[in-house]
Amino acid sequence: MTAYLALAISVGVLAILDTWLFGVPLAEMLPGLVWVSFIAWGCHFHSGGGVKGMTTAAVGMSFGAIVGMAAIWALMGPLASLGDFAGPVAVGLGAFVICLASKVPLLATIPASVYGFAAVAGATFLMAGGGDMDPAGALVPTVVSVVIGALFGIVSENLAGVLTKKA
C-alpha cells in the first residue's frame, strides 16, 4: 500500500474514533471540544510529525492555552476599563508573550502556541454559552483535548507506517 493511501486510511479511521470519543464517552467532560483535538492532530503533522511533532503540539498548544486564559482574565479584569479596546489589547499582549516565549526551544513553534491560545478562547466562549465566562474552567478541557489530539497524530502516523510495510 502506498504511504499516501495508508495515511488517508489511518487518519480516516482514527477520525471516526476521535469524533466518537468526544461525542459519547467524553461528551460531558469535554463538551464540544473535538475541534481542539483535530487542531492538535493537525499541529502534530505541521510540526514535523514523530515525537517532536507530538511534543510541539502538546506543549506549545498547552502553553498557548495558558496565555489565552490569562489574556481573557486580563480583558475581564484590569483591561476592562479600556472598553472596546480591552479584547484587542489582551490579544496583543498574549501574542507578545507567545513570541517572546519562542526563545524557549519547546515553545519555538509559534503557530502551536497560537492554536492553543485560540482554542482556549473558543472553548471559553463556547462553555459560557452566553453566561459567565470562566477561562480557568475551559483550560483543563482544552489541554486534555490538545493531548488527545497530539496522541491521535502520532498514532495515525505510526498506523500509516504499519500499513505501508511489506509482508
Automatic annotation (TrEMBL):
The keyword Transmembrane helix applies. Keywords: Membrane, Transmembrane, Transmembrane helix. The chain crosses the membrane at residues 25-45, 57-76, 82-100, 112-130, 136-156. Signal peptide: none annotated. The keyword Transmembrane helix applies. This is DUF1097 domain-containing protein. It comes from Aurantiacibacter gilvus.
